[in-house]
Every structure is written in structure tokens, then in C-alpha cells.
Specification:
Helices cover 39% and strands 17% of the residues. The relative contact order is 0.06. It has an eight-stranded parallel sheet with strand order 23-22-24-21-25-26-20-27. It has 39 helices and 37 strands. It is of the alpha/beta class.
């Protein structure tokens, strides 16, 4: 029987748990009703420390507010009747801040950490309040957002209106600010879900246990799964694999171990299934010694496993790090660098570098690197051994965090100096343990005797040391040292010794199997000196005083000018920009080798990597070198494969680098052909392979060289950086632009004249034109350029894309011909392009660009050619939202003024590396600094969309442009005239214009949805039997050319192409930016956020969603699973994306 107490008030925390895990919410509710009969697991000691730190964090803020003479009313927050009354009194009084105010609106009850008075009128008077949630974490968690939104709702009763914003006070003392509208639809959706859950709660219907994060019930549920011998016990078992096995009735590790060898499970690679079966089999095998797990050796028939274990060197180093997060200060600290090595007497010796501050961390990192480099001088063949990826990732992060030791760490990673023993172990043995952690593996060769057994325990110990008065070095207290740190040191030493002994154990196995030496460094040549670009970057960074490195970037302050004539903040950005290209190159290189590693250890993990063709199989019957693969992989290699430069793939097992045959990659069929001869290579090719994209560096070599030459001159003072670049990096405003914007608002017909006059009258300026979809930014750009050429200007054009440059040049040529302007338009390139065959645009190589050229278009690479030496009056950067700030820095010397044209709300610039100080942004993104609409003192916002019907425009404007994008009123007459016979039969409402969401229910769809494809097929049939009308034009039948069909993944695109009429235009969002049609249909494809291969971040990325919706002139249809709205979010950005989707679902739900 359902408990009658199901109707109740709930707390923000309870709703937050439900949003994170309905399973945890079920157990929470059972416990709240005092029906839980189990035993809860003990509280994690780290959580106790964090709880105390949370109180300290909150009190720190209160003291700071009081020190600034704010009136803070402190309440009890106990949520009884008197507390509610005291809170109402405090709100009516209008204190600056109210601490722990209690609320209860009959539905939600809770005590808010802090209320802040703001000057926004409400029922209270000329003021109102917004909630501030104080959280110890340094990153935003959706639990915090849910809680804050609950308090926004609780405030409505007192104030009469909903707060427009809320704030989070996070670890490190930073504030984050949020717009309530960006989360409210999602919040209401989740709250209604939770209320339904409470109404229908039945304590007798225990839900199925699911692996994953379940708030404070995670360990409890994990233990239940283990007790049931669930498949999660099997090492390296993925969620998708578990689901497929369970679908065939295989529910436990024992059942998996019992299946016949080479059995088949639908949707599972047979090799992967056999690997999991063997893993399960060895895990359940009875042990001869209860403390020592069973293991079997894998077949050593490849070049990874023991083949990849280097020959021992007397100089070898075994390395382990200990790290901790300071949640109050919002930082991460690698506080202990530990090594063991063999001394001259062949004795194992340990050594440590300690760091208790950021400055200490940087110094210890540099000392560690210097120590290794000196040891390499004596032992050039040494390697640094570690276990698991933490150490390798940490040195990468430290290198980029402090922009120090850049050359050394890059060279270490490039030359394979760091050897991770974990993948070697995983490719050498099958271990009878559910985990291949060092603590599990070491049972094969040693017994750990220290009390401290895990990294979490070491973190707890370090936190306790921080709260003690003990000294900062390990040892005995009577010697003036710290016993707590000594305990951590001994734990670290145990890990180091274990890593050393594991290395020896593996070497013994290698010797026993008579495996010959095959390991080699990735590069034969070692960089002897620091990279030149890193030197220039370091020189700039070394000039910056330590106090200028302000960690809390949310605090606005006046930044002093330095001796070079710009701010220290700008100098940080400049120093970071110098390394942008090499960081991107480094990460590409590291990813390449990480992929090779994974191809041996866990090839299934590469199935979602769009630059790898995973689990490919040699087609032995083919006359070519041909591999087949599952076409349902999210592969994005076709563009490279069909380009002039071609695509090279590495085959790890075959140890071959092969070039793809032009148009030899067919993702639709799951086939790839290579140019090399099968007759010569065929016998040396592995049957099963992962095909990995080879990262080419030569594309950016000329840009890197040009930037280096300029950087040397800038740093030494030989030449100055372009003033326009300094304007951009300082984010200077142009007050003179405000009256220009005012004129444009009143008179759109002369917009090009106002802009060209402004450029002509002002020298050495940089500003932007933001052009949302359909606002005619290309037409406007061509008119502005024409105006300036007629005034005697020479104009250069650049972009990331040849196509974008070519389109703008052709547009200008058309205007020149119409106006009889006889000026030279040139594409700077070494090859003729047939696209210009019917125009006056000519192609010239860089060395022939001279002062007689009025308009020139060139990619960054051509600007950076040694033969290019020309200066223009204006540089127009088209699609500036995708053009790297570092590239603009490199070519800015070629122009006096710069005009950025683009839209940060459409497709963004992709980057792969982590770039400090916003140096990884596009030039337009940097200028706009997170704003959705360009301010009137930094640029011009094109306010009218000439393309979209008002009903589409208004949705796009509200979701992406703060309501500032207005429709062309003439488009109000644009409409679809539906086939009424079909409509009456279908019994659904179809709007004649606007945005329409059509729900299609399906489950477990990731990259392909047959259900959505079928619905789209039905829609196409209906559309082709219907008509459309544009303004005063006559009614016309809709044709295939009038429809765009868009999907987020190539797999769905290929399936739709097979399913639908060949005349239809079908592609991904990237294919259709800049295009338009009467009707667009966007297939969301994935059943839920969990099913989406790259999560909600990619699927509902606002720029992509904006492009997909705004292609349509009359009707934009979104086809998707309603379950997407129920997706679980981990980040605030994902919540914002779901909020948009939910609003779209409500806009036009058929």
C-alpha cells in the first residue's frame, strides 16, 4: 500500500538528489519515511573534513561582508515557526544581507545560505532580494543551481515577483552569476517530475540497482550490486556492454564466465565479448592463495604489452605524485613529487620534493624536471616509470598551468620518456581482480604493510596536517618535523617501491617468454634546447610581477600599465598566445599516442572517438588494402579523406602508415580503401585493427615561423605589436561607435555607408559586425568593402575557410561589375580555382601581390608566406567567431585597421588543448568576452533577419540574442499551406510557420534513430503534397529543393540518405552553415543525454542548435525523443542546453 504521507513539503537538497539520481531519491524517501531496514555505510572521513571546511568557507564570506560595513542579519535557519517569522521580518526590514533565512511555501521548505538585497523594485518597496548559495566546490554543480532556483521560487511569495538572477559563492572566494530565465523551464520540469515521483512512491516497489553516481547512496548501491554478483564486477565492463549482456539474460559475472567461448551477443564485437568472458572466468576462479589473485598471460603477439617495455637502464626513475584539492581556495595542488632510483651502489634510493603553496608547486615541478634532465645527461637511455595516467596528465597540466618547462615536458612526451606500466600490465595478463589498480596488481609480487592504503586516505591525512600546527617537512616531531607528513611520505614510498617491483616483475616475465627488445623512442632526435617560441613566451611571463597573477578573475580591478605600454593582463594573454599553435600541436601528438595505447589495451573505448576507425577488419577477399567497419561509428574523417592533401591513417598492430585512396572512405557502407599495394603489404597486415588519424604539423609551419620571427622582435623591442591587436587584447571600447549604431537603428538602408564612413574617418581601429542568421552580413561586408575601395582603400580578406573567402570575393566582383568599378580583385593562392572562371577575380601567388591589388583574399598560411610582403588599409576577418586570436596576432601587421565579421552564437572555433588566459578563443569571442550580443561601443549588431518568418525569428532571438534580433515584417505572410486531407487523417495540429517540435519515442538510440528517420519520411511525404506562399507570390508546391534535413551525426545522415529521396539535401550542421531553405528538419537522433556519444554538450550545443533552427525561412521542424528532457546533467552548461530544448518543446509541440 502506498504510504499516505507521500504528499509533503520537500527541501531543495531532496530535489537536487532526485535530479542527480532518481534511484538515490527513492532510497532517500524510504529512509525519510523510516522504512529503510538496511545498514548505511560509514561516513567518508573526507566528507567530514569537507563539511567543516564548508562552514569555514561560509563564515569567511560573512566576516568579509561585515568588514565592508554591510548590515548582515544572522538567523538560525532551523525552519521552525519562529524562524519563518524572523525571516519575513528581516526581508521587510531590507537588510543588506540575510544569513540562513528560513522559508516554507507549503510545497518547498529550506534555509537559504544568504540573501542579497538588490535595487530592483518589488512588493517590499524599491528593493528585492536574490539568493546566494555558498558552496565549497571550485566548480559549479547542478545541485547548487537546483537549490538556488528553489530559493528563487520561495522568494516569490514575499516579494511578489521572481528574482531575475542568483549567485553562487564557490571555493576560492569566487562568485558566479546566473540568469534565472536560462534555467527556469528545466527547473519547473524537474520539480514536476519529482512531485509526480513523490505522489506515486511505493515502498514495496524497489527499483533496479544501476551502476553510477547516486549521491550519498553510491557506496550502498555499489555494495548491493556486488552482492548480486553484477556484471559491474568485471574489469573494464562498459555500461553499454552491460546493457547488451543483460538484454540477453546474462546478469552476473558468473553467467558471463559460463557462456561458451566465441559466443555471439547482438551488437557486441566478438573479440571484446571473448575478452570480457575470459576476464570474468579468471575473476571467479578459486584462488590457491586467498591473498594472491589468479592470472593468465595473454598471447604476446603484438608490439604493445611486454614488447613495449623498455630495456632497463641504470638511470631509470620510478615516479609517483600526491595531490589534493583545496576546496575553500578553489585550487588543486600537487604537494609531493616522489621518486626512487638506483644509486651508484645499486641500492634503491628515494627522494622527494614537497610543495604546500602554488609557488612551491611550481618550484618543485621545475626542480624535479631539472633533476631528471641532469640525470639524463649521465644516463641518456633512462625512462620514468609510473602507474596509471595521473602522473602523465599532471605534468602536462603543470606545464600549461605555469607555462614552464614547456620544451622539456613536450620532449619527454614526444620521445616516450614517461612509461605508464598500467597499459603494459593490462595487455600482458588477465588478472583475477575487478580492478587493475596498483594496490590490486601488487598482490602478485609484494605485501603492503603501511596503514595508509589509498590516495583518498592520503588526501584526508594531508587535510588533517593542514589543520594542525606541525611543520612542513616529514619526520619526527622531536626533530622539528611532521609525523603526519612522514606517514604520507611512507605511503608514497610504498607506491614507488611497488612501481619499481612491478617493473622488475614484468621484466622477468619478458625474459621468461624470450621476448626480444623492440621498444624504441618515438623520435630519434632529442631537442637539446628550449623551443624558441617558449623562450619568448617565458621572457614575457618572467617580467610580470607575482601580484599581477590574480587568481580570482571575477574581481574587476584597474590593471596598471607596464613599461611596454600595455597592462600586465594583456602581457599574460600575449605570452599565452605565442604558444597557442604548439600547444595544439602537442595535444594532437599526445592524443595520437594515447589512441595507439588504447587500441591495444581497450579498443572499445575508441568507438566514440571521431578521429579513429575502431574495430576495423581486413577484407581479405578485396584486391585493395581494404578494411570494413561498423558504419554506426561517429567518424569525421571524410572531409580530410576527400581533400587535396589527403588522409593518412596509422595501423598500430600492422605498424603501418597508409594513405587513404581519394574518396576511398565510405562511412555510409563502413568501408575504407588505401592507396598502397596489397600485393606488397598484404601479408604484413593485421586482420583486426584500429585505424588512427596521423596528425600532420606542416599545415601550420609557416604560421608558427612567422609568429616566432615577430615575437623575437616584439620581445626585444625591435618592432611593436599592431595597435589594433593591443586594442583587442585590452578590450578597449570605441565610444565613437555609439552614434553610428544610433544612425543605423534609424536608417538601415544606408548601413554600409555609415560603417564605411566610420572606418575611413578613423585610423588604426578594430571593431566587429555581429551578423545573426539571415541578417545579410556577407552582402553588407561586400558593400562596405566596395565603398572603401571607391575611397582609395586597399582591403584584405581572410577566414579559416577557402569557401568563405571565395564567396565574399565573388560577391564583391558582382558589385564591381554592376557599378563598373575597374579595380583588381585577387585570390592569393598558388593554384588556379575554377570557381573564379566566370568572374574577374584572378589568382596570384604571394610574391605577386602588389599595391595595384585593391581587394585580396588569402588564408592565414598565405599571409605568413615568406614571399608575402604587402600592407592593406583594412583587414576583414570573415566568420571571425571561428578565427583563432593567435592567427590574427600573426597577420595583423599587414593591415592598419581590422573589421571582425561573424557571430559567436553560430558554429564556434574548435580547439583541442587547454589554453590559459583565454588564449584559445577566437578573435570575436575574445572581443565579446562571453556576451551574446556585441555592445554598441565595441561593434555593430545587425538587428533584422531578412530570412526567417517572424515566428521562427522570435524563438531564435529569445533563445540566442537576448530578444534583440527583429524579424522582417514582410515575412509575416510566408506560410505553409498544408495538405488538408492528410492533416485530417493525421489528426495533429501543424503550424503554418515557426518552430515545431515533434516527439518521437525511442530507446537506446545513440548515433542513429530508425524511428526518427521513419517520422521524417512521413513528414517529407506530407510536405511534398503541400504548398507554400512567400509574401505576395502565388502558392507553389513544395519540392525536395525547398527542404534541408539536418542531423548531428554522420551515422544518422548516412542512414537518412539511404532511407529518403536522393534529391533531398541531407547533412550535418557543419555542412549547412550559411545555407537556407523554406523548411528545415533537424533530427536530434539520440534517445537521451546518456545515449548521446558526446553527451548533451555536443548534441544541444547552442551554436549548433541556432544554426539548425535558423536555416528555415518558413518552418523549422525539430524531431526528437521527449526523453531528452529527462537527461541527467553534470554541468550548468548542460542545464542551459536542456532549458532551451524544453522551451522549444513547449513552443510548438505536435
Amino acid at each position: 500500500m502506498i504510504n499516505p504521507s507521500s504528499e509533503k513539503t520537500f527541501t531543495p537538497s531532496e530535489l537536487a538528489v532526485f535530479c542527480q539520481s532518481p534511484l538515490a531519491a527513492w532510497w532517500n524517501e524510504l529512509d525519510r519515511r523510516k522504512l529503510f531496514k538496511g545498514q548505511k555505510l560509514k561516513q567518508d572521513p573526507l566528507n567530514e573534513i569537507l563539511k567543516k571546511d564548508g562552514i569555514r568557507h561560509e563564515n569567511k564570506l560573512i566576516k568579509e561582508l561585515e568588514s565592508q560595513n554591510f548590515k548582515v542579519q544572522k538567523l538560525k535557519g532551523k525552519q521552525d515557526k519562529s524562524d519563518y517569522e524572523e525571516c519575513i521580518k528581516a526581508i521587510n526590514h531590507g537588510y543588506d544581507f540575510i544569513h540562513q533565512g528560513s522559508f516554507n511555501n507549503g510545497e518547498i521548505r529550506g534555509a537559504v545560505d544568504l540573501l542579497k538585497r538588490v535595487d530592483i523594485p518589488s512588493r517590499l518597496g524599491p528593493f528585492s532580494f536574490i539568493p546566494i548559495e555558498c558552496k565549497l566546490a571550485s566548480n559549479i554543480n547542478i545541485k547548487f543551481i537546483i537549490q538556488a532556483l528553489c530559493y528563487c521560487e520561495l522568494l516569490i511569495e514575499s516579494m511578489g515577483n521572481r528574482p531575475k538572477t542568483f549567485e553562487l559563492y564557490l571555493g576560492g572566494g569566487s562568485f558566479e552569476y546566473f540568469n534565472v530565465d536560462k534555467y527556469w523551464a528545466w527547473y519547473q520540469f524537474k520539480k514536476n517530475e519529482y512531485k509526480s515521483f513523490l505522489r506515486n512512491f511505493n515502498p514495496n516497489e524497489e527499483p533496479e540497482d544501476i551502476p553510477g553516481e547516486h549521491s550519498n547512496w553510491t557506496e550502498f548501491i555499489t555494495e548491493r550490486l556486488k552482492t548480486k554478483r553484477d556484471l559491474i564486477l568485471v574489469h573494464n565492463m562498459l555500461k553499454t556492454q552491460r546493457n547488451k549482456l543483460r538484454a540477453k539474460g546474462i546478469l552476473s559475472i558468473d553467467q558471463l564466465a559460463a557462456i561458451k567461448p566465441n559466443a555471439k551477443i547482438p551488437g557486441m564485437n566478438p573479440e571484446i565479448l571473448e575478452r570480457l568472458r575470459k576476464q570474468a572466468e579468471i575473476q571467479i576462479k578459486p584462488r590457491k592463495n586467498k591473498n594472491v589473485p589468479e592470472f593468465i598471460l595473454k598471447d604476446q603477439d603484438n608490439s604493445f604489452g611486454l614488447f613495449n617495455l623498455p630495456k632497463p637502464s641504470q638511470g631509470d626513475i620510478w615516479f609517483d605524485l600526491e595531490g589534493v584539492r583545496d576546496f575553500v581556495n578553489g585550487t588543486k595542488l600537487e604537494y609531493l613529487f616522489g621518486v626512487v632510483y638506483l644509486d651508484k651502489n645499486n641500492q634503491l634510493t628515494d627522494f622527494y620534493w614537497w610543495a604546500h603553496t602554488d609557488e612551491g608547486e611550481k618550484l618543485s615541478f621545475e626542480k624535479f624536471v631539472d633533476w631528471v634532465e641532469k640525470r639524463r645527461e649521465e644516463f641518456p637511455d633512462l625512462h620514468i616509470y609510473h602507474y596509471a595516467n595521473y602522473e602523465k596528465a599532471a605534468v602536462r597540466d603543470l606545464q600549461q598551468k605555469y607555462l614552464t618547462c614547456m620544451t622539456e615536458i613536450t620532449e619527454w612526451l614526444t620521445n616516450n620518456l614517461l612509461i605508464d606500466l598500467q597499459p603494459i600490465v593490462e595487455n600482458t595478463i588477465i588478472l583475477g581482480e575487478e580492478s587493475y589498480s596498483l594496490k590490486k596488481v601488487e598482490k602478485l609480487y609484494m605485501n603492503r604493510e603501511e596503514d595508509m592504503q589509498s590516495a583518498v586516505e592520503s588526501m584526508v591525512a594531508y587535510e588533517r596536517w593542514k589543520n594542525s600546527d606541525e611543520p612542513g617537512m616529514p619526520g619526527k616531531l622531536e626533530d622539528g618535523l611532521s609525523p603526519m607528513l612522514e606517514e604520507i611520505r611512507l605511503y608514497n614510498k610504498d607506491d614507488l617501491v611497488s612501481t619499481y617491483k612491478l617493473n622488475q616483475w614484468l621484466l622477468e616475465k619478458k625474459s621468461d617468454l624470450n621476448i626480444e627488445e623492440s621498444f624504441s623512442n618515438r623520435e630519434d632526435k632529442k631537442e637539446k634546447s628550449q623551443r624558441e617560441i617558449d623562450i619568448e613566451s617565458s621572457l614575457l611571463l618572467d617580467e610580470i610581477p607575482s601580484q599581477a597573477f590574480n587568481k580570482n578573475q571575477n574581481k574587476s580591478k584597474v590593471t596598471p600599465i607596464n613599461p611596454r605600454g600595455w597592462s600586465w593582463e594583456t602581457q599574460k594573454v600575449l605570452a599565452s598566445l605565442l604558444g597557442f599553435l604548439v600547444r595544439e600541436q602537442d595535444v594532437n601528438y599526445w592524443r595520437y599516442f594515447d589512441r595507439i595505447e588504447q587500441s591495444f589495451v581497450n579498443p572499445s573505448s575508441l568507438l566514440k572517438d571521431d578521429e579513429v576507425i575502431a574495430e576495423a577488419r581486413l577484407v581479405e577477399s578485396s584486391e585493395y588494402i581494404e578494411y570494413s567497419f561498423n558504419p554506426e561509428q561517429p567518424i569525421k574523417l571524410e572531409k580530410d579523406a576527400n581533400s587535396s592533401w589527403g588522409l593518412r591513417l596509422y595501423l598500430p598492430k600492422s605498424e603501418r602508415n597508409l594513405k587513404v585512396e581519394p574518396f576511398g572512405l565510405d562511412c555510409e557502407k563502413g568501408s575504407i580503401k588505401f592507396k598502397e599495394s596489397k600485393r606488397i603489404l598484404g601479408k604484413n597486415l593485421a586482420i583486426n585493427e584500429c585505424l588512427i588519424k596521423v596528425e600532420e604539423a606542416y599545415f601550420t609551419s609557416s604560421i608558427r615561423k612567422s609568429l616566432l620571427e615577430q615575437a623575437k622582435d616584439w620581445v626585444s623591442g625591435v618592432s611593436s605589436i599592431s595597435p589594433t591587436i593591443i586594442q583587442l587584447l585590452e578590450r578597449d571600447i570605441l565610444p565613437e561607435l555609439i552614434p553610428v549604431n544610433e544612425k543605423i537603428q534609424k536608417d538601415l538602408t544606408n548601413i554600409n555607408k555609415y560603417i564605411s564612413d566610420f572606418i575611413f574617418e578613423n585610423n588604426e581601429i578594430l571593431f566587429a559586425i555581429q551578423g545573426p542568421p539571415g541578417t545579410g552580413k556577407t552582402t553588407l561586408s561586400s558593400k562596405v568593402i566596395t565603398d572603401l575601395v571607391q575611397k582609395g582603400y586597399r582591403v584584405a580578406i581572410t577566414s579559416n575557410s577557402h569557401k568563405v573567402i571565395d564567396n565574399l570575393l565573388l560577391k564583391i566582383d558582382t558589385i564591381f561589375q554592376d557599378l563598373n568599378i575597374n579595380q583588381k580583385i585577387v585570390k592569393c593562392d598558388t593554384r588556379e580555382d575554377e570557381i573564379f572562371s566566370n568572374s574577374n577575380v584572378i589568382t596570384l601567388p604571394p610574391k605577386k601581390i602588389n599595391n595595384y591589388v585593391s581587394v585580396m583574399g588569402a588564408t592565414t598560411t598565405k599571409f605568413c608566406s615568406k614571399e608575402f610582403d604587402s600592407t592593406f588599409d583594412l583587414l576583414v576577418v570573415d566568420e571571425a567567431g571561428q578565427y583563432a586570436l593567435a592567427n590574427l596576432l600573426t597577420i595583423a601587421k599587414h593591415s592598419k585597421s581590422i573589421l571582425l565579421v561573424g557571430d559567436t552564437q553560430q558554429l564556434a572555433m574548435p580547439t583541442k588543448a587547454s589554453h590559459p588566459n583565454n588564449s584559445g578563443q577566437s578573435c570575436l569571442q575574445f572581443l565579446m568576452n562571453g556576451l551574446e550580443v556585441i555592445p554598441s561601443n565595441k561593434g555593430i549588431f545587425l538587428p533584422i533577419s531578412w530570412r526567417m518568418a517572424p515566428t521562427i525569428n522570435n524563438v531564435v532571438s529569445e533563445l540566442f540574442y537576448q530578444g534583440k534580433l527583429k524579424p522582417n515584417t514582410k515575412n509575416s505572410e510566408n506560410k505553409i499551406i498544408w495538405d488538408q486531407a492528410y492533416i485530417e487523417k493525421d489528426k495533429k495540429v501543424y503550424p503554418d510557420s515557426g518552430v515545431m517540435f515533434i516527439p518521437v519515442r525511442h530507446q537506446d538510440c545513440s548515433l542513429k534513430s530508425e524511428e526518427e528517420a521513419e517520422k521524417i519520411k512521413q513528414l517529407i511525404k506530407l510536405l511534398l503534397s503541400s504548398k507554400y506562399k512567400l509574401a505576395t507570390d502565388k502558392e507553389k508546391f513544395i519540392s525536395e529543393e525547398d527542404i534541408l534535413i539536418i542531423a548531428p551525426f554522420n551515422v544518422q545522415v548516412n542512414y537518412l540518405k539511404r532511407k529518403l529521396n536522393k534529391k533531398l539535401k541531407i547533412g550535418t550542421v557543419d555542412n549547412f552553415q550559411g545555407q537556407e531553405a523554406l523548411i528545415s528538419i533537424f533530427s536530434l537522433t539520440s534517445s537521451s543525454g546518456e545515449d548521446a556519444p558526446r553527451g548533451l554538450d555536443f548534441l544541444l550545443e547552442p551554436n549548433r542548435l541556432n544554426v539548425a533552427i535558423s536555416r528555415a525561412k518558413i518552418l523549422s521542424i525539430i524531431v526528437g525523443s521527449p526523453s531528452l528532457a529527462k537527461s541527467f546533467c553534470k554541468k550548468s552548461e548542460e542545464v542551459e542546453k536542456l532549458n532551451r530544448l524544453i522551451r522549444l518543446m513547449r513552443t510548438g509541440n505536435s
